[in-house]
Amino acid sequence: MLQLDLLRHGQTELGHTLRGYTDDALTPEGWQQMQLEVLEKLQQPVQWQAIYSSTLIRCSHFARQLSQQLKLPLILNSDLKEMNFGQWEGCSTEEIYQREPELLASFWEKPSFYTPPEAEPLHEFQHRIQRAFQLIHQQMLENNWRQVLVICHGGVIKLMKCLASDQSPDHLLKIPAELGQLHTLYLNSHNPQSYALEASEK
Prior knowledge:
Distance between the termini: 17 Å
Shape: globular
Largest sheet: 6 strands, mixed
Radius of gyration: 17 Å
Number of strands: 6
Strand order of the largest sheet: 3-2-4-1-5-6
């Protein structure tokens, strides 16, 4: 099995909003959240052999510094970006609820059937993320890497946890993925679409 440690970015300047493709930076607290999580992991026998990251700066800035610190190759991949929320980009759920309460409720309950205005449909998001992880799988095999770090977003981690636990992607918005938190997935080296969660997360 190949091991993928997924690290969600920390707190950002836009705070509690649907950021999606919006390219806001980490706050000092957000940077510290990620540092503390990585430091705790590094105190264990971690064997990261490469770092992958979303191209959005709330992920990529930290990834660049960490790759230099650990002297590991860094691979930036735009397919690892968060879901694009269209007209809801940069808005809090409270704001959206005030304007479109029924639409927000529909999206939260069944995102595969409701797409926010001008946003990325869930099936397209899933296809993009699976493409990104299939590439990671391929490159891990080519380079004989057994364990990598992937710095990405809440939606990405939630989707991968859905797939790893055989849940419908419609459960994505109900799955926890806290800011600055690590999650471990195991990938079948012979099947790029076969994932398993770390036992503590099942």
